[in-house]
Amino acid sequence: MNVMQSYTESTDLVMDGTALAERLARDGYLFIRGLVPTDAVENVGHQFLDVVAQGGWLDPDHPKRSRIANRNIVCADPEPEFLQVFRRFYLSEDSHALKHHPNIVGLFERIFDEEVLVHPLFVARNIFPQKEKLTTRPHQDFVHIQGTAETFTVWLPLHDCPREMGGLAVAEGSHRQGVHDFTVASGAGGLEVTAPFDGQWRFGDFAVGDALIFHSMMVHKGMDNKTKKIRHSIDARYQRVSEPISEVSMANYSGCGDWEEIYGNWKTDDLKYYWRKQNPDVQPYDFQYYDRRDDIAFKMAEDGNDTARAALLRIVQRDPRAEKRARATDLLDRLEA
User: Cα–Cα distance between 29 and 26 in angstroms, integer?
Assistant: First the structure.
């Protein structure tokens, strides 16, 4: 049995930018307890709960803050019924403000020793319990976000997250070998890295306010949520302002509205289009990795393999090329026939 080791904690290094940078270069991740104040995180977490409660995703026979899931409803990104509810969370001004918290930005200022670019795009996660098929498979963020490889994700659960609720595991040192081979999978991202990384996985419990920070090439995966509760978290990303960013990271999350819609009911203008003052070097998106994923998904779907469904939905919703969308739509119809 392959028992996962616990994260190496870096809380004691939080004010030492040089030491943090050295550990990131060595391990590919940092685990820092209490990085963000509890009240700031819980405020956003409660707003997320309000959204999913209105969508019927919580069990009406339990208090909302118990987080107990409605067992009659299970859906996942990028299914339309999921996004219909999920997109409401992105209208929250506080959810966008959280990624700008001075404790996070200040940490990266010390690590980078220069101005920080907070990615406009952030990702919220809603993980239903006891649905292992929907658990996020091992993958690398770089394949999806591109830009500079020296981009770092902050994974922040919006509530206490003990091991039995899942959370995130990282394969220590896996960021040093570039892009790993992958295949198509169900769950977030629609793909998974094929190497097992035995002996390299690190995992642990989170209290609200704890943060896991990792390199864009770090292989990481969701862990099965074995409780009865929905798990909520956000992924926010950071890089040096002097390095390139992909156009995909300049937009809001796909299917969840454009910036004018997002900003519609905000009370302040402070964070609206904040990146324009920094004049980032925005580069076109390179579809080479998605083209590889899509070729695999098309073949799987033609063979009747439903595992291709998540990748096909992503093509239909997000690929700018009409011929690809048409082929994916046809194959989805065949799978659902």
Answer: 8
Largest Cα–Cα distance in the chain? 58
pLDDT, mean of each 10-residue run, the chain (337 residues): 85 98 98 98 98 96 97 88 92 97 98 98 94 91 97 98 97 97 85 95 98 98 96 98 98 92 96 98 96 96 94 92 96 93
Instruction: Tell me which residue of 131, 126, 122 sits closest to 158, measured CA to CA.
Output: 126
- Listed in sequence order, the DSSP H helices in 38-186 are 38-54, 80-86, 93-98, 102-112, 142-145
Write the pLDDT tens digit of every residue in 28-58. Answer: 999 999 999 999 999 999 999 999 999 999 9
In contact, 312 and 297? CB cutoff 8 Å: yes
State which amino acid sits at residue 145: I
pTM: 0.95
Q: Which two tokens stand for residue 37?
A: 């104040």
Q: What angle do CA 34, 36, 244 make, to 5 degrees?
A: 120
* Exposure class string for 24-41: b at 16+ Cβ within 10 A, else e: beebbbbbbbebbeeebb
CB atoms under 10 Å from CB of 290, counted, come to 21
DSSP class per residue in 42-61: HHHHHHHHHHHHHTT-B-TT
41-to-47, 104, 235 alpha-carbon distances in Å: 10, 12, 13
Helices within 146-237 (DSSP H only): none
What the block records as the tokens of 322 is 């009409």
DSSP codes joined into one string, 228-267:
SB-EEEEEEEEEETTS-EEGGGGSPPTTS--HHHHGGG-S
3-state SS class at 70:
coil
Q: Is 178 left (phi over 0), alpha (psi -120 to 50) or beta?
A: left
